[in-house]
Protein backbone atom coordinates (compact mmCIF):
# COMPACT_ATOMS: atom_id res chain seq x y z
CA UNK A 1 0.00 0.00 0.00
CA UNK A 2 2.82 2.41 0.91
CA UNK A 3 4.66 1.65 -2.33
CA UNK A 4 1.46 2.17 -4.34
CA UNK A 5 0.74 5.50 -2.65
CA UNK A 6 4.33 6.61 -3.15
CA UNK A 7 4.18 5.67 -6.83
CA UNK A 8 0.91 7.59 -7.39
CA UNK A 9 2.31 10.60 -5.55
CA UNK A 10 5.39 10.59 -7.82
CA UNK A 11 3.21 10.30 -10.94
CA UNK A 12 1.04 13.25 -9.84
CA UNK A 13 4.08 15.31 -8.87
CA UNK A 14 5.71 14.55 -12.23
CA UNK A 15 2.53 15.61 -14.02
CA UNK A 16 2.41 18.87 -12.04
CA UNK A 17 6.02 19.54 -12.98
CA UNK A 18 5.33 18.78 -16.63
CA UNK A 19 2.28 21.07 -16.80
CA UNK A 20 3.79 23.95 -14.85
CA UNK A 21 7.36 23.89 -16.13
CA UNK A 22 7.66 21.99 -19.42
CA UNK A 23 4.32 23.07 -20.95
CA UNK A 24 3.96 26.19 -18.83
CA UNK A 25 4.97 28.71 -21.44
CA UNK A 26 2.68 27.34 -24.12
CA UNK A 27 -0.29 27.10 -21.75
CA UNK A 28 0.18 30.71 -20.65
CA UNK A 29 0.13 31.77 -24.31
CA UNK A 30 -3.07 29.78 -24.89
CA UNK A 31 -4.71 31.33 -21.86
CA UNK A 32 -3.76 34.84 -22.90
CA UNK A 33 -4.97 34.12 -26.42
CA UNK A 34 -8.46 33.37 -25.08
CA UNK A 35 -8.64 36.80 -23.48
CA UNK A 36 -6.71 38.85 -26.02
CA UNK A 37 -7.36 39.92 -29.60
CA UNK A 38 -4.83 41.24 -32.11
CA UNK A 39 -5.05 43.59 -35.07
CA UNK A 40 -2.09 42.94 -37.39
CA UNK A 41 0.23 45.79 -38.34
CA UNK A 42 1.57 44.79 -41.75
CA UNK A 43 5.24 45.52 -42.35
CA UNK A 44 6.10 47.65 -45.37
CA UNK A 45 7.68 45.39 -47.99
CA UNK A 46 11.17 46.33 -49.11
CA UNK A 47 11.41 48.21 -52.39
CA UNK A 48 13.21 46.99 -55.51
CA UNK A 49 15.40 49.37 -57.54
CA UNK A 50 17.50 49.08 -60.67
CA UNK A 51 21.27 49.52 -60.44
CA UNK A 52 20.93 53.30 -60.78
CA UNK A 53 18.34 53.69 -58.01
CA UNK A 54 15.18 53.85 -60.15
CA UNK A 55 12.14 52.28 -58.49
CA UNK A 56 10.94 49.00 -60.03
CA UNK A 57 8.63 47.76 -57.25
CA UNK A 58 7.18 49.85 -54.43
CA UNK A 59 4.18 50.10 -52.11
CA UNK A 60 0.95 52.07 -52.02
CA UNK A 61 -1.14 52.65 -48.89
CA UNK A 62 -3.99 50.20 -48.45
CA UNK A 63 -5.96 48.61 -45.62
CA UNK A 64 -7.15 45.25 -44.32
CA UNK A 65 -10.70 45.09 -42.98
CA UNK A 66 -11.83 42.65 -40.24
CA UNK A 67 -15.09 41.90 -38.46
CA UNK A 68 -15.72 40.17 -35.12
CA UNK A 69 -19.16 38.54 -35.34
CA UNK A 70 -19.64 38.51 -31.56
CA UNK A 71 -19.32 42.30 -31.40
CA UNK A 72 -21.66 43.12 -34.29
CA UNK A 73 -25.07 44.30 -33.07
CA UNK A 74 -26.84 44.59 -36.46
CA UNK A 75 -25.45 41.76 -38.57
CA UNK A 76 -27.70 42.33 -41.60
CA UNK A 77 -26.71 45.98 -41.81
CA UNK A 78 -23.03 45.14 -41.39
CA UNK A 79 -23.15 42.47 -44.13
CA UNK A 80 -24.93 44.85 -46.51
CA UNK A 81 -22.45 47.72 -46.01
CA UNK A 82 -19.34 45.53 -46.18
CA UNK A 83 -20.59 43.77 -49.32
CA UNK A 84 -21.28 47.10 -51.02
CA UNK A 85 -17.94 48.67 -50.10
CA UNK A 86 -15.59 45.74 -50.64
CA UNK A 87 -17.27 43.57 -53.26
CA UNK A 88 -17.85 40.48 -51.09
CA UNK A 89 -20.96 38.32 -51.33
CA UNK A 90 -23.55 39.69 -48.88
CA UNK A 91 -25.38 36.39 -48.29
CA UNK A 92 -22.18 34.43 -47.62
CA UNK A 93 -20.88 37.10 -45.25
CA UNK A 94 -24.18 37.28 -43.35
CA UNK A 95 -24.13 33.51 -42.87
CA UNK A 96 -20.60 33.68 -41.41
CA UNK A 97 -21.63 36.51 -39.10
CA UNK A 98 -24.67 34.64 -37.75
CA UNK A 99 -23.18 31.15 -37.49
CA UNK A 100 -20.82 32.17 -34.71
CA UNK A 101 -18.19 29.60 -35.66
CA UNK A 102 -15.27 32.04 -35.70
CA UNK A 103 -14.23 34.95 -33.52
CA UNK A 104 -12.86 37.05 -36.39
CA UNK A 105 -13.28 37.27 -40.17
CA UNK A 106 -11.08 38.94 -42.77
CA UNK A 107 -13.39 40.90 -45.06
CA UNK A 108 -10.88 42.53 -47.42
CA UNK A 109 -7.18 42.98 -47.98
CA UNK A 110 -5.48 45.81 -49.84
CA UNK A 111 -8.64 47.91 -49.69
CA UNK A 112 -8.29 51.50 -50.90
CA UNK A 113 -8.39 54.53 -48.61
CA UNK A 114 -11.64 55.92 -50.05
CA UNK A 115 -13.58 52.74 -49.23
CA UNK A 116 -12.21 52.65 -45.68
CA UNK A 117 -13.15 56.31 -45.14
CA UNK A 118 -16.71 55.47 -46.19
CA UNK A 119 -16.66 52.52 -43.77
CA UNK A 120 -15.67 54.81 -40.89
CA UNK A 121 -18.74 56.93 -41.62
CA UNK A 122 -21.05 53.99 -40.93
CA UNK A 123 -19.54 53.42 -37.44
CA UNK A 124 -20.37 49.70 -37.36
CA UNK A 125 -19.69 47.86 -34.08
CA UNK A 126 -17.25 44.96 -34.38
CA UNK A 127 -15.64 46.15 -37.65
CA UNK A 128 -11.96 47.06 -37.59
CA UNK A 129 -9.27 47.92 -40.09
CA UNK A 130 -5.49 48.13 -40.11
CA UNK A 131 -2.87 49.66 -42.37
CA UNK A 132 -1.71 47.35 -45.14
CA UNK A 133 0.52 47.64 -48.19
CA UNK A 134 -0.30 47.07 -51.84
CA UNK A 135 2.57 46.21 -54.18
CA UNK A 136 2.89 48.68 -57.05
CA UNK A 137 5.04 48.30 -60.18
CA UNK A 138 5.60 51.70 -61.85
CA UNK A 139 6.49 50.20 -65.25
CA UNK A 140 3.66 47.68 -65.58
CA UNK A 141 4.80 44.74 -67.72
CA UNK A 142 8.47 45.79 -67.91
CA UNK A 143 10.75 43.11 -66.41
CA UNK A 144 7.62 41.22 -65.29
CA UNK A 145 9.10 37.70 -65.44
CA UNK A 146 12.17 38.82 -63.48
CA UNK A 147 10.50 40.91 -60.78
CA UNK A 148 7.65 38.44 -60.24
CA UNK A 149 4.60 39.17 -58.09
CA UNK A 150 3.26 38.74 -54.56
CA UNK A 151 0.20 37.08 -53.02
CA UNK A 152 -2.74 38.94 -51.52
CA UNK A 153 -1.04 38.95 -48.12
CA UNK A 154 2.24 40.26 -49.53
CA UNK A 155 4.34 37.09 -49.77
CA UNK A 156 6.58 36.69 -52.83
CA UNK A 157 5.25 34.09 -55.26
CA UNK A 158 7.58 34.33 -58.26
CA UNK A 159 10.70 36.00 -59.61
CA UNK A 160 12.88 38.16 -57.41
CA UNK A 161 9.90 38.79 -55.12
CA UNK A 162 10.07 35.09 -54.25
CA UNK A 163 13.86 34.69 -54.44
CA UNK A 164 14.44 37.41 -51.84
CA UNK A 165 11.13 37.21 -49.96
CA UNK A 166 12.86 36.91 -46.57
CA UNK A 167 14.89 40.04 -47.28
CA UNK A 168 11.99 42.07 -48.64
CA UNK A 169 9.24 40.79 -46.33
CA UNK A 170 10.04 42.40 -42.99
CA UNK A 171 8.30 41.43 -39.72
CA UNK A 172 4.65 42.26 -39.01
CA UNK A 173 3.65 43.98 -35.79
CA UNK A 174 0.32 43.94 -33.93
CA UNK A 175 -2.08 45.90 -31.74
CA UNK A 176 -3.24 43.66 -28.87
CA UNK A 177 -6.02 44.34 -26.34
CA UNK A 178 -8.04 42.30 -23.82
CA UNK A 179 -11.57 41.03 -24.46
CA UNK A 180 -14.17 38.91 -22.74
CA UNK A 181 -14.82 35.27 -23.68
CA UNK A 182 -16.99 36.21 -26.69
CA UNK A 183 -14.52 38.72 -28.07
CA UNK A 184 -15.95 42.03 -26.79
CA UNK A 185 -13.50 44.60 -25.48
CA UNK A 186 -13.43 44.84 -21.70
CA UNK A 187 -13.95 48.17 -19.97
CA UNK A 188 -10.44 48.17 -18.52
CA UNK A 189 -8.78 46.83 -21.68
CA UNK A 190 -5.03 47.35 -22.00
CA UNK A 191 -3.74 48.07 -25.49
CA UNK A 192 -0.26 46.83 -26.35
CA UNK A 193 1.35 48.03 -29.60
CA UNK A 194 4.22 46.20 -31.27
CA UNK A 195 5.52 48.07 -34.28
CA UNK A 196 6.25 46.37 -37.59
CA UNK A 197 9.80 46.12 -38.93
CA UNK A 198 9.90 47.03 -42.65
CA UNK A 199 11.71 44.84 -45.14
CA UNK A 200 15.10 45.71 -46.60
CA UNK A 201 15.39 47.43 -49.98
CA UNK A 202 17.34 45.76 -52.77
CA UNK A 203 19.04 46.94 -55.95
CA UNK A 204 19.25 44.75 -59.02
CA UNK A 205 22.02 44.62 -61.61
CA UNK A 206 19.33 45.55 -64.16
CA UNK A 207 19.86 48.86 -65.97
CA UNK A 208 16.36 50.23 -66.58
CA UNK A 209 17.40 52.25 -69.63
CA UNK A 210 18.90 49.19 -71.30
CA UNK A 211 15.90 47.12 -70.20
CA UNK A 212 13.46 49.56 -71.79
CA UNK A 213 15.48 49.57 -75.00
CA UNK A 214 15.54 45.77 -75.11
CA UNK A 215 11.82 45.61 -74.31
CA UNK A 216 10.99 47.85 -77.26
CA UNK A 217 13.29 46.05 -79.72
CA UNK A 218 12.09 42.57 -78.72
CA UNK A 219 8.42 43.60 -78.76
CA UNK A 220 8.81 45.02 -82.27
CA UNK A 221 10.36 41.84 -83.69
CA UNK A 222 7.77 39.71 -81.85
CA UNK A 223 4.90 41.64 -83.43
CA UNK A 224 6.43 42.16 -86.88
CA UNK A 225 7.38 38.51 -87.42
CA UNK A 226 4.30 36.91 -85.86
CA UNK A 227 6.64 34.78 -83.78
CA UNK A 228 5.52 32.38 -81.08
CA UNK A 229 7.77 34.24 -78.64
CA UNK A 230 10.84 36.47 -78.55
CA UNK A 231 13.38 37.05 -75.80
CA UNK A 232 16.66 38.73 -75.06
CA UNK A 233 19.31 38.80 -72.36
CA UNK A 234 21.94 41.52 -72.02
CA UNK A 235 24.87 41.04 -69.65
CA UNK A 236 28.23 42.57 -68.82
CA UNK A 237 30.90 40.03 -69.86
CA UNK A 238 33.39 41.53 -67.41
CA UNK A 239 31.47 40.27 -64.35
CA UNK A 240 28.23 38.64 -65.63
CA UNK A 241 25.93 41.34 -64.23
CA UNK A 242 22.52 40.86 -65.84
CA UNK A 243 21.67 44.23 -67.42
CA UNK A 244 18.38 43.28 -69.10
CA UNK A 245 16.03 40.32 -69.47
CA UNK A 246 13.04 40.43 -71.80
CA UNK A 247 10.38 37.84 -72.64
CA UNK A 248 7.48 38.43 -75.04
CA UNK A 249 4.58 37.95 -74.61
CA UNK A 250 4.33 39.53 -71.15
CA UNK A 251 1.71 40.68 -68.62
CA UNK A 252 1.03 43.69 -66.39
CA UNK A 253 2.34 43.18 -62.86
CA UNK A 254 -0.36 45.57 -61.59
CA UNK A 255 -3.08 43.36 -63.11
CA UNK A 256 -1.91 39.78 -62.59
CA UNK A 257 -4.32 37.22 -64.18
CA UNK A 258 -4.65 35.23 -60.95
CA UNK A 259 -7.95 33.63 -62.02
CA UNK A 260 -6.31 32.06 -65.09
CA UNK A 261 -3.55 29.82 -63.69
CA UNK A 262 -2.48 28.31 -67.03
CA UNK A 263 -2.17 31.72 -68.66
CA UNK A 264 -0.36 33.13 -65.64
CA UNK A 265 2.09 30.22 -65.57
CA UNK A 266 2.89 30.65 -69.26
CA UNK A 267 3.30 34.42 -69.10
CA UNK A 268 5.25 34.53 -65.82
CA UNK A 269 7.93 31.97 -66.80
CA UNK A 270 11.35 33.46 -67.32
CA UNK A 271 12.13 31.25 -70.32
CA UNK A 272 15.66 32.64 -70.55
CA UNK A 273 16.43 30.71 -67.37
CA UNK A 274 13.87 27.91 -67.20
CA UNK A 275 13.46 26.66 -70.81
CA UNK A 276 15.94 24.90 -73.09
CA UNK A 277 16.36 25.00 -76.86
CA UNK A 278 18.74 23.75 -79.55
CA UNK A 279 21.10 26.70 -80.19
CA UNK A 280 22.22 25.96 -83.72
CA UNK A 281 25.07 28.00 -85.17
CA UNK A 282 25.53 30.35 -82.20
CA UNK A 283 27.08 27.30 -80.52
CA UNK A 284 29.94 27.45 -83.05
CA UNK A 285 31.46 30.19 -80.88
CA UNK A 286 32.27 27.52 -78.31
CA UNK A 287 33.54 24.96 -80.82
CA UNK A 288 35.84 27.59 -82.32
CA UNK A 289 37.03 28.57 -78.83
CA UNK A 290 37.92 24.95 -78.01
CA UNK A 291 39.81 24.54 -81.27
CA UNK A 292 41.81 27.75 -80.83
CA UNK A 293 42.77 26.86 -77.27
CA UNK A 294 43.90 23.37 -78.26
CA UNK A 295 45.89 24.80 -81.16
CA UNK A 296 47.69 27.11 -78.72
CA UNK A 297 48.20 24.11 -76.40
CA UNK A 298 50.09 22.38 -79.23
CA UNK A 299 47.44 19.74 -79.92
CA UNK A 300 48.20 18.44 -83.42
CA UNK A 301 44.55 17.48 -83.93
CA UNK A 302 43.37 21.08 -83.63
CA UNK A 303 43.00 23.35 -86.65
CA UNK A 304 45.25 26.41 -86.81
CA UNK A 305 43.70 29.80 -87.73
CA UNK A 306 45.38 29.53 -91.15
CA UNK A 307 44.61 25.89 -91.87
CA UNK A 308 42.19 25.37 -94.76
CA UNK A 309 39.13 23.15 -94.52
CA UNK A 310 38.70 21.44 -97.86
CA UNK A 311 37.28 18.39 -99.56
CA UNK A 312 33.65 17.31 -99.72
CA UNK A 313 31.36 19.20 -97.40
CA UNK A 314 28.94 16.30 -97.15
CA UNK A 315 30.11 13.35 -95.12
CA UNK A 316 28.67 10.23 -93.57
CA UNK A 317 29.28 9.66 -89.88
CA UNK A 318 28.01 6.43 -88.32
CA UNK A 319 25.70 6.11 -91.32
CA UNK A 320 24.31 9.61 -90.74
CA UNK A 321 24.70 12.22 -93.46
CA UNK A 322 26.12 15.52 -92.19
CA UNK A 323 25.83 18.44 -94.59
CA UNK A 324 25.94 22.21 -94.69
CA UNK A 325 22.96 24.56 -94.93
CA UNK A 326 24.52 25.67 -98.26
CA UNK A 327 24.63 23.37 -101.30
CA UNK A 328 28.28 24.40 -101.87
CA UNK A 329 27.55 25.03 -105.54
CA UNK A 330 30.38 26.49 -107.63
CA UNK A 331 32.93 25.64 -104.96
CA UNK A 332 31.17 27.68 -102.28
CA UNK A 333 32.52 26.91 -98.76
CA UNK A 334 34.94 24.32 -100.22
CA UNK A 335 38.20 25.89 -99.09
CA UNK A 336 38.11 28.17 -96.04
CA UNK A 337 39.89 28.98 -92.82
CA UNK A 338 38.26 28.89 -89.39
CA UNK A 339 37.49 32.61 -89.60
CA UNK A 340 35.82 32.11 -92.97
CA UNK A 341 33.92 29.08 -91.65
CA UNK A 342 32.51 31.31 -88.90
CA UNK A 343 31.63 33.99 -91.46
CA UNK A 344 29.84 31.44 -93.63
CA UNK A 345 28.51 29.40 -90.70
CA UNK A 346 29.64 26.22 -92.46
CA UNK A 347 28.46 23.21 -90.45
CA UNK A 348 30.91 20.53 -91.72
CA UNK A 349 33.96 22.59 -90.66
CA UNK A 350 32.81 22.45 -87.05
CA UNK A 351 31.99 18.78 -87.45
CA UNK A 352 35.62 18.28 -88.47
CA UNK A 353 36.84 20.12 -85.36
CA UNK A 354 34.66 18.15 -82.92
CA UNK A 355 35.60 14.78 -84.43
CA UNK A 356 39.30 15.67 -84.60
CA UNK A 357 39.45 16.63 -80.92
CA UNK A 358 37.38 13.65 -79.72
CA UNK A 359 34.53 13.40 -77.28
CA UNK A 360 36.58 13.16 -74.06
CA UNK A 361 38.47 16.42 -74.65
CA UNK A 362 35.45 18.16 -76.17
CA UNK A 363 33.26 17.26 -73.20
CA UNK A 364 35.88 18.60 -70.77
CA UNK A 365 35.49 21.99 -72.40
CA UNK A 366 31.69 21.77 -72.53
CA UNK A 367 31.72 21.16 -68.78
CA UNK A 368 34.02 24.16 -68.24
CA UNK A 369 31.59 26.28 -70.28
CA UNK A 370 28.80 25.24 -67.90
CA UNK A 371 26.77 23.10 -70.28
CA UNK A 372 24.66 20.37 -68.73
CA UNK A 373 24.66 22.20 -65.41
CA UNK A 374 23.09 25.26 -63.79
CA UNK A 375 24.92 28.56 -63.89
CA UNK A 376 24.06 29.27 -60.25
CA UNK A 377 22.11 32.46 -60.94
CA UNK A 378 20.07 33.82 -58.02
CA UNK A 379 16.76 32.93 -59.64
CA UNK A 380 14.58 29.88 -59.00
CA UNK A 381 13.62 27.32 -61.64
CA UNK A 382 16.88 27.26 -63.59
CA UNK A 383 17.08 24.34 -66.05
CA UNK A 384 20.14 22.12 -66.46
CA UNK A 385 20.15 22.04 -70.22
CA UNK A 386 20.62 18.72 -72.00
CA UNK A 387 23.78 16.92 -73.05
CA UNK A 388 24.00 13.36 -74.33
CA UNK A 389 25.80 11.42 -71.56
CA UNK A 390 29.47 11.20 -72.48
CA UNK A 391 29.48 7.41 -72.26
CA UNK A 392 26.69 7.23 -74.85
CA UNK A 393 28.00 9.79 -77.34
CA UNK A 394 28.56 8.38 -80.84
CA UNK A 395 30.61 10.09 -83.51
CA UNK A 396 27.44 11.19 -85.29
CA UNK A 397 26.28 12.86 -82.05
CA UNK A 398 29.62 14.58 -81.52
CA UNK A 399 29.62 15.74 -85.14
CA UNK A 400 26.26 17.47 -84.68
CA UNK A 401 27.12 18.90 -81.27
CA UNK A 402 30.02 20.67 -82.99
CA UNK A 403 27.60 22.93 -84.86
CA UNK A 404 24.87 23.22 -82.22
CA UNK A 405 22.57 20.27 -82.79
CA UNK A 406 21.95 17.28 -80.48
CA UNK A 407 22.52 19.63 -77.55
CA UNK A 408 20.06 21.85 -75.69
CA UNK A 409 20.85 24.86 -73.53
CA UNK A 410 19.10 27.65 -71.69
CA UNK A 411 19.58 31.11 -73.13
CA UNK A 412 21.39 32.08 -69.93
CA UNK A 413 23.80 29.13 -70.27
CA UNK A 414 24.70 30.08 -73.82
CA UNK A 415 25.07 33.78 -73.00
CA UNK A 416 27.39 33.00 -70.07
CA UNK A 417 29.42 30.47 -72.06
CA UNK A 418 29.84 32.93 -74.95
CA UNK A 419 30.72 35.73 -72.51
CA UNK A 420 33.49 33.65 -70.96
CA UNK A 421 34.83 32.77 -74.42
CA UNK A 422 35.21 36.45 -75.38
CA UNK A 423 36.13 38.10 -72.05
CA UNK A 424 39.51 36.41 -71.71
CA UNK A 425 38.23 33.06 -70.44
CA UNK A 426 36.64 34.03 -67.10
CA UNK A 427 33.39 32.27 -66.18
CA UNK A 428 31.57 34.13 -63.40
CA UNK A 429 28.41 33.16 -61.54
CA UNK A 430 25.71 35.33 -63.15
CA UNK A 431 23.64 37.36 -60.72
CA UNK A 432 20.69 39.77 -60.62
CA UNK A 433 21.02 41.08 -57.05
CA UNK A 434 23.45 43.98 -56.84
CA UNK A 435 23.06 45.14 -53.23
CA UNK A 436 20.87 45.12 -50.10
CA UNK A 437 20.04 48.27 -48.14
CA UNK A 438 18.97 47.37 -44.55
CA UNK A 439 15.83 49.11 -43.30
CA UNK A 440 17.58 49.97 -40.01
CA UNK A 441 19.86 52.40 -41.82
CA UNK A 442 22.89 50.15 -41.90
CA UNK A 443 25.49 50.17 -44.64
CA UNK A 444 24.48 48.95 -48.09
CA UNK A 445 25.81 45.45 -48.72
CA UNK A 446 27.22 44.94 -52.22
CA UNK A 447 27.25 41.56 -53.99
CA UNK A 448 30.76 40.87 -55.28
CA UNK A 449 31.37 38.96 -58.55
CA UNK A 450 32.27 35.30 -58.07
CA UNK A 451 34.73 33.73 -60.50
CA UNK A 452 33.60 30.16 -61.04
CA UNK A 453 36.34 28.84 -63.32
CA UNK A 454 38.49 29.50 -66.37
CA UNK A 455 37.44 28.25 -69.79
CA UNK A 456 40.11 29.34 -72.29
CA UNK A 457 43.19 31.57 -72.23
CA UNK A 458 43.25 35.28 -72.93
CA UNK A 459 45.23 34.64 -76.13
CA UNK A 460 42.65 32.20 -77.50
CA UNK A 461 39.87 34.58 -76.50
CA UNK A 462 41.50 37.47 -78.37
CA UNK A 463 41.83 35.36 -81.53
CA UNK A 464 38.17 34.36 -81.26
CA UNK A 465 36.98 37.96 -80.77
CA UNK A 466 38.86 39.02 -83.88
CA UNK A 467 37.19 36.25 -85.91
CA UNK A 468 33.72 37.07 -84.56
CA UNK A 469 34.23 40.72 -85.43
CA UNK A 470 34.77 39.52 -88.98
CA UNK A 471 31.40 37.72 -88.88
CA UNK A 472 29.71 41.10 -88.35
CA UNK A 473 31.87 43.15 -90.71
CA UNK A 474 32.09 40.59 -93.54
CA UNK A 475 29.90 37.56 -92.83
CA UNK A 476 26.39 36.51 -91.82
CA UNK A 477 26.17 39.07 -88.98
CA UNK A 478 26.32 42.15 -91.21
CA UNK A 479 22.88 43.34 -90.05
CA UNK A 480 24.35 43.95 -86.57
CA UNK A 481 27.17 46.19 -87.78
CA UNK A 482 27.30 49.78 -86.46
CA UNK A 483 29.50 52.24 -88.31
CA UNK A 484 32.37 53.45 -86.18
CA UNK A 485 32.01 50.71 -83.54
CA UNK A 486 33.64 47.29 -83.23
CA UNK A 487 30.70 44.90 -82.98
CA UNK A 488 31.24 41.12 -83.07
CA UNK A 489 28.92 38.14 -82.94
CA UNK A 490 27.47 35.00 -84.45
CA UNK A 491 24.12 34.23 -86.05
CA UNK A 492 22.09 31.06 -85.58
CA UNK A 493 19.16 29.43 -87.35
CA UNK A 494 18.06 26.14 -85.80
CA UNK A 495 15.37 23.78 -87.06
CA UNK A 496 12.85 22.69 -84.46
CA UNK A 497 12.00 19.08 -83.79
CA UNK A 498 8.59 17.63 -82.93
CA UNK A 499 8.02 13.97 -82.08
CA UNK A 500 11.58 13.13 -83.07
CA UNK A 501 11.39 14.63 -86.55
CA UNK A 502 12.18 18.00 -88.11
CA UNK A 503 9.12 20.26 -87.87
CA UNK A 504 8.46 21.74 -91.28
CA UNK A 505 8.73 25.53 -91.40
CA UNK A 506 9.57 25.95 -87.70
CA UNK A 507 12.85 27.62 -86.75
CA UNK A 508 14.55 29.36 -83.86
CA UNK A 509 16.38 32.47 -85.08
CA UNK A 510 19.11 33.84 -82.83
CA UNK A 511 22.13 36.08 -82.58
CA UNK A 512 24.88 36.48 -79.97
CA UNK A 513 26.60 39.83 -80.26
CA UNK A 514 28.97 41.92 -78.17
CA UNK A 515 30.96 45.15 -78.25
CA UNK A 516 33.56 46.56 -78.19
CA UNK A 517 35.07 43.50 -79.88
CA UNK A 518 38.52 43.96 -78.33
CA UNK A 519 37.27 44.46 -74.72
CA UNK A 520 33.62 43.39 -74.47
CA UNK A 521 31.40 45.29 -72.04
CA UNK A 522 27.97 44.45 -73.43
CA UNK A 523 26.78 41.10 -74.74
CA UNK A 524 23.28 40.41 -76.05
CA UNK A 525 21.62 37.14 -76.97
CA UNK A 526 18.43 37.54 -79.01
CA UNK A 527 16.10 34.57 -79.64
CA UNK A 528 13.02 34.63 -81.88
CA UNK A 529 10.98 31.43 -81.74
CA UNK A 530 9.09 30.42 -84.90
CA UNK A 531 9.12 33.69 -86.87
CA UNK A 532 6.81 33.68 -89.85
CA UNK A 533 8.25 34.49 -93.26
CA UNK A 534 11.97 35.30 -93.04
CA UNK A 535 13.59 33.09 -90.43
CA UNK A 536 17.37 33.39 -90.69
CA UNK A 537 19.04 34.67 -87.55
CA UNK A 538 21.03 37.09 -89.69
CA UNK A 539 17.89 38.91 -90.88
CA UNK A 540 15.56 38.40 -87.89
CA UNK A 541 17.65 38.46 -84.70
CA UNK A 542 20.81 40.39 -85.59
CA UNK A 543 18.98 43.70 -86.26
CA UNK A 544 17.42 43.48 -82.78
CA UNK A 545 20.87 43.33 -81.17
CA UNK A 546 21.99 46.23 -83.35
CA UNK A 547 19.05 48.34 -82.14
CA UNK A 548 19.87 47.58 -78.49
CA UNK A 549 23.57 48.32 -78.98
CA UNK A 550 22.79 51.64 -80.67
CA UNK A 551 20.64 52.63 -77.70
CA UNK A 552 23.40 51.62 -75.26
CA UNK A 553 25.85 53.78 -77.22
CA UNK A 554 23.46 56.71 -76.89
CA UNK A 555 22.60 56.03 -73.20
CA UNK A 556 26.22 55.63 -72.12
CA UNK A 557 27.54 58.25 -74.55
CA UNK A 558 30.11 55.81 -75.96
CA UNK A 559 32.37 57.41 -78.54
CA UNK A 560 33.28 55.72 -81.84
CA UNK A 561 36.55 53.84 -82.17
CA UNK A 562 39.64 55.93 -82.96
Quick summary:
The chain is an alpha+beta fold and 562 residues long. Strands 2, 3, 4, 5, 8, 17 and 18 form a seven-stranded mixed sheet that branches.
List keywords for this structure.
about 25% strand; seven-stranded mixed beta sheet; about 550 residues; 22 strands; about 35% helix; single chain; five-stranded antiparallel beta sheet; alpha+beta
What is the typical, i.e. mean, pLDDT? 88
Instruction: Let me know the number of strands.
Output: 22
**Distance from first to last alpha carbon:** 108 Å
- Major β-sheet, in short? 7 strands, mixed
Sequence stretches where pLDDT stays below 50 over 5 or more residues: none
Can you give the helix content as a percent range?
25-40%
Number of helices: 20
The shape, in one word, is elongated
Class from helix and strand fractions: alpha+beta
Query: Assembly state here?
Result: single chain
Q: What amount of the residues lies in strands? A: 15-25%
Task: Output the radius of gyration.
Answer: 31 Å
Description:
This protein is α+β, with helices and mostly antiparallel strands. Strand 9 (229-236) and strand 10 (241-248) form a beta hairpin. Helix 3 runs antiparallel to helix 4 and helix 3 (75-86) runs antiparallel to helix 5 (113-122).
What's the helix and strand layout?
Layout: H1 2-22, H2 24-35, E1 36-41, E2 48-49, E3 55-67, H3 75-86, H4 90-99, E4 105-111, H5 113-122, E5 127-136, H6 144-147, H7 159-163, H8 165-169, E6 173-178, E7 192-194, E8 201-204, H9 208-225, E9 229-236, E10 241-248, H10 261-268, H11 271-274, E11 276-277, H12 284-296, E12 315-317, E13 320-322, H13 338-344, H14 347-357, H15 359-368, E14 386-387, H16 395-401, E15 407-410, H17 411-422, E16 426-428, E17 433-437, E18 445-446, E19 451-454, H18 458-473, E20 488-498, E21 501-515, E22 522-529, H19 537-540, H20 542-555
Parallel strand pairs: 2-8
Antiparallel strand pairs: 1-6, 2-3, 3-4, 3-5, 6-7, 8-17, 9-10, 9-22, 11-15, 12-13, 14-15, 16-19, 17-18, 20-21, 21-22
Amino acid sequence: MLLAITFLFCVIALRFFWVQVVDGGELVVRAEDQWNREIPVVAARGRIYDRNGRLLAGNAQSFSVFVRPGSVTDKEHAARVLAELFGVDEETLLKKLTDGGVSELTVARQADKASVEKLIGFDIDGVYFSADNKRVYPYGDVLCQVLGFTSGDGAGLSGMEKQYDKVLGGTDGQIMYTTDIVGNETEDTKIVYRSAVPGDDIKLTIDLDIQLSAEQAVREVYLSTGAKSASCIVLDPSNFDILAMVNCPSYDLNDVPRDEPQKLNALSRNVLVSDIYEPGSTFKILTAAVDLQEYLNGNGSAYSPTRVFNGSRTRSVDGTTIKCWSDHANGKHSNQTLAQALNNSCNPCFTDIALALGKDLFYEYLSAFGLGNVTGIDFSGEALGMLVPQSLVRDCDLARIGFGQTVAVTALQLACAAASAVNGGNYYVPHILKSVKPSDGGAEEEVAPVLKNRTISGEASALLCDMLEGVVSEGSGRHAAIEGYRVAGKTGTAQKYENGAVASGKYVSSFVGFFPADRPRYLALVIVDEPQGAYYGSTVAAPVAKSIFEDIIRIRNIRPCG
